[in-house]
Design brief:
The structure holds 2 protein chains of 2 kinds. By secondary structure, chain A is mostly helical. Chain A has 9 helices and no strands. Helix content of chain B is 36%, strand content 24%. Chain B starts with a helix and ends in a 10-residue tail after the last helix. Classes of the chains: A mainly alpha, B alpha/beta. The interface between A and B is large, with 40 and 32 residues.
């Protein structure tokens, strides 16, 4: 127990890395998800097939494999390219950037499906009515489709966020000093793994409980004016 | 939030540090390598790394790595050498190269302090020795003490429990593992090492070496020379004494 108190500041830093990683990954995943959904719904057939390939491959490959592939494989690609272009030493992919990219890339595929499903859930008549009122294509999407789409997407989006937070644990495998990575090392160093893993469990639980509260408010906000 | 983002950006933008050598270390294998409360890696491996760098006249930066990703990190130039208690094995030699060993924890026997056993086939006749199944120690016993009765265990902890309950008379295993995992604990009071240090390459491998990329033969030889140098000038022994009360380097050179 006393070791846990001694290592508390270090674990705090790790928790900050985990939270920053999760939030930045969510931003990237949301952007990729929106692009992917747009490509699947209204894109040219090449965009549609690219998005399909993306969701099929990413959702079918374990997170761990993708993270290793991006961090080490991506580095090899850069090294090879740099050597071919005559640079020496190359550019280093930071562990944090690799983590954000990997997690964002993975969960973007899940969000593509979430957004596409939400788009399909908005009644067809809504878009047609907006068109009849003379709204342009962009105004139709922004004013009529998106506000309703968000309402349908929010449950799936919350779910993806919960899973995303926990899957940040996987990036400790590339040596990123996140909560899990640091707790694992501290636990082994002090031979008190049990206490450290228990602390990690509580931190993750805290993050998800707080998220649930926040998302509940968001859900109430996007559903305002709609009878339950 | 702003601070978190700023920190995150700082991490994103960190350029590769301009050191002569980047050394991958691990940080979860005490006393060789452990992480302190301030997040630093310390231990025997780290002290050896610093001593070797000083001898080679290079400035070194330690790169904290996860064990599972440490060989890929070396191969993809994230560091130039691995100093992380990595045993030299044939499988690893297929992908990376090793310096000569910088330590080899010997295998030893333990028994009750007052047991008065000897580590000869005659001294152990009629006794029961416990080993962990499928380890180098089982092969060692079957090769060198073929007539001694063996009891095989799934884990090292089960062997300790049976030693305490008197079902077996002795255990043979890695000396550091037993010293840290049993003798230094409350349960290990009343037990001690006996007999010689065993590190026979046929059974126990070649010890822990410094991993380098296969193309870096010069660096590999430089490390081997530096190991010889710190062995010769006494700095190796000074470091070893901080952590161990026996000869960690093991037999031979």
């Amino acid at each position: 127990m006393s070791a846990l108190i001694e290592y508390a500041p270090l674990l705090g830093q790790g928790a900050m890395v985990t939270i920053a990683l999760a939030l930045l990954s969510l931003v990237l995943a949301t952007v990729l998800g929106a692009l992917g959904a747009a490509a699947k719904i209204g894109g040219h057939w090449t965009a549609d097939w690219t998005a399909r390939g993306y969701t099929t491959v990413v959702r079918g490959v374990p997170d761990l494999v993708l993270i290793m592939l991006i961090y080490f494989g991506g580095q090899r690609l850069i090294n090879t390219a740099a050597t071919a272009l005559g640079f020496d030493g190359g550019i280093e992919i930071s562990k944090f950037a690799a983590g954000v990219f990997a997690i964002g890339f993975i969960y973007g595929a899940y969000l593509t499906e979430t957004f596409r499903g939400a788009w399909a859930a908005v009644p067809k008549g809504q878009g047609e009515a907006a068109q009849a009122l003379g709204l342009g294509r962009l105004a139709r999407i922004r004013l009529v489709m998106i506000p309703q789409l968000v309402r349908f997407a929010i449950s799936g989006y919350s779910n993806v966020w919960m899973v995303l937070v926990k899957s940040t644990a996987v990036v400790s495998v590339i040596g990123l000093a996140d909560l899990v990575g640091l707790a694992d090392k501290a636990g082994k160093s002090t031979r008190q793994q049990f206490w450290f893993y228990l602390a990690v469990l509580l931190v993750y639980l805290l993050i998800t409980i707080v998220s649930e509260r926040v998302l509940e408010r968001v859900r109430a906000r996007v559903n305002r004016g709609i009878p339950a | 939030m702003k601070r978190v983002l700023a920190a995150a950006l700082a991490v994103l933008a960190t350029p590769a540090l301009a050191a002569d050598l980047d050394i991958c270390v691990e940080g979860a294998y005490p006393p060789f390598s452990e992480t302190t409360a301030s997040g630093e890696v310390v231990g025997f491996d780290v002290d050896i790394a610093n001593a070797l760098c000083a001898t080679m006249g290079k400035s070194c930066t330690l790169v904290q790595s996860e064990w599972d990703g440490i060989i890929p990190a070396l191969i993809e130039n994230k560091c130039d050498a691995i100093i992380a208690s990595m045993s030299i094995t044939e499988d690893r030699k297929k992908v990376i190269d090793f310096s000569e060993k910088y330590y080899q924890t010997p295998a030893k026997f333990i028994a009750a302090k007052d047991a008065g056993l000897e580590d000869t086939p005659a001294g152990l006749a009629g006794k029961v020795v416990g080993v962990q199944r499928g380890t180098t120690h089982q092969q060692f016993m079957e090769g060198e003490f073929a007539d001694v009765e063996l009891r095989l265990y799934g884990t090292q902890d089960e062997a300790y429990l049976d030693l305490q309950s008197g079902r077996i008379d002795a255990i043979v295993a890695d000396s550091v593992a037993m010293s840290q995992g049993f003798l230094a604990t409350e349960a290990g009071e009343g037990y001690a090492f006996f007999g010689k240090d065993y590190s026979i390459p046929k059974y126990h491998g070649e010890g822990a070496g410094i991993g380098v990329r296969q193309s870096d033969t010069e660096l590999r030889d430089a490390f081997t020379k530096a190991i010889e140098a710190i062995r010769a000038d006494g700095s190796y022994d000074a470091i070893a004494r901080k952590y161990f009360d026996f000869d960690i380097y093991g037999a031979g050179t």
